[in-house]
Design a protein that fits this description.
It contains 10 helices and 12 strands. With 409 residues, the protein is of the alpha+beta class. The chain has a 5-stranded antiparallel beta sheet with strand order 2-1-5-4-3, with helices on both faces. A 5-stranded mixed beta sheet has the order 7-9-10-12-11. Strands 6-8 form a two-stranded antiparallel ribbon. It is elongated.
């Protein structure tokens, strides 16, 4: 430690005393001289000590920055949620030209809005615990607007004499994408196993019946009604396989411009006979000047036939079905099918559309799943709301022809 301050202040004391001796003829070694010199010595020592530690702090900070810059992972230091320092890896990750583009900017400028509250709670935890905290994941954004997933751990430090938060992390976008792909594959395999088991179960029941009747035929019991039952069971197998093929073997749909009003009227005409036999009345209501839609006509007819059939079967004692077609905002058409049936418990609604989940005694669930897939391929959506013992509303939303063209382009 250099003694510049001590030497300087003691020197000043000597010069002042010498001045007093020369011009005022005072004694050189006086009590005042001794006291002033001792004070100068002590103050100078403290000054030199402070300078020494200040130099050490600056050297330590330079070494600290040099160490941080040498790390391959992004490291940054925040004060009041603003950047105090960032290493080269952090600058590259943010796609900034230099550190100056980051220094002084709030960290929230680099976080997707949905993750900002998470970051605020994280900072409160860091300041409270004053110790390293576990890693957490954020969805962040770069200066060029692109987004990525960032995994970071943080700790409370003192940097440049200021209380701050040091964070170290890494871009995990590639790892997260790979994990998501593995999860999707796992879910698909699980679904495939579930569907295979369901199909085997659904087909085995009618096959068992057919086998029993064939044994009766062999024994000479050829009652005419037995043939009808066998044919009915074969039709059931064919229906199950047909529904499965729609899901398992997607076909290239040719979308053409169609009037929803004509399409709905055709479907209602087709199913009217079944509705009358079940004591169900179907009433249709259209908005005026409905826009056209781009669709595969037969597929949409299949959807509405399935939904109307479900509505009829939900009213075993008869009732009324209202079909309301209206134009919604943002270029969409809404088709609502409202029945007065038994309804569906709220906890079962999220599982509708899953294979082999059904509220019917002899259903497979594939019909509704097929509806979901067809509407999804038309860039639309199906929403189901229901109240037990009051009825169910199924809303199909489809984009208009203008919106469809924008999506396709």
């Amino acid at each position: 430690m250099r003694k510049t301050g001590q030497i300087t202040l003691v020197g000043i004391s000597l010069l002042f005393t010498a001045f007093q001796k020369m011009y005022h003829q005072q004694e050189f070694f006086t009590i005042d001289f001794l006291i002033f010199t001792v004070i100068a010595w002590i103050v100078g020592y403290q000054y030199d000590k402070a300078r020494h530690f200040e130099k050490k702090v600056r050297e330590s900070e330079r070494s600290y920055k040099k160490l941080i810059d040498s790390l391959p992972d992004p490291v940054y230091i925040l004060k009041d949620h603003k950047f105090l320092y960032a290493n080269h890896a952090a600058v590259r990750m943010a796609r900034a030209k230099n550190k100056e583009e980051l220094i002084g900017r709030p960290i929230f400028d680099f976080l997707v809005p949905d993750y900002q509250d998470r970051a605020r709670e994280r900072f409160k935890q860091i300041q409270k615990e004053k110790s390293p905290v576990n890693t957490i994941e954020y969805k962040a954004k770069r200066l060029d607007g692109s987004t990525f997933f960032f995994e970071v751990s943080s700790m409370y430090i003192v940097f440049g004499g200021q209380k701050a938060v040091l964070s170290m992390g890494k871009d995990i976008s590639a790892r997260k994408e790979q994990t998501d792909q593995l999860l999707q594959k796992s879910e698909k395999l699980a679904l495939l196993g579930q569907m295979a088991a369901g199909i085997a179960h659904e087909i085995r029941n009618p096959l068992t019946s057919i086998r029993g009747f064939i044994q009766l035929f062999k024994s000479g019991q050829n009652h005419p009604q037995y043939f009808d039952i066998v044919l009915s069971e074969l039709d059931r197998i064919n229906s199950i396989v047909g529904e499965f093929l729609v899901l398992a073997k997607p076909t290239a749909s040719v979308l053409i411009e169609k009037d929803v009003k004509n399409l709905i009227n055709d479907v209602v005409t087709l199913i009217n006979t079944q509705s009358i036999l079940n004591n169900v009345q179907i009433y249709v209501e259209f908005d005026s000047d409905l826009p056209m839609v781009m669709c595969e006509e037969n597929q949409l007819k299949q959807v509405f036939l399935n939904l109307l059939k479900n509505a009829i079967e939900a009213m075993p004692t008869g009732g009324q079905i209202d079909v309301k077609v209206k134009q919604k905002e943002d270029g969409k058409i809404s088709i609502q099918i409202i029945d007065q049936g038994v309804g569906i418990p709220e906890d079962r609604i999220p599982t509708l559309g899953e294979p082999f989940y059904t509220t019917k005694e002899k259903g497979t669930g594939l019909g509704l799943m097929t509806c979901y897939k067809i509407i999804e391929n038309h860039n639309g959506e199906i929403k189901i709301t229901s109240v037990v013992d009051e009825g169910t509303t199924v809303e199909v939303t489809l984009p208009t022809i203008t919106q469809s063209l924008l999506v396709m382009s």
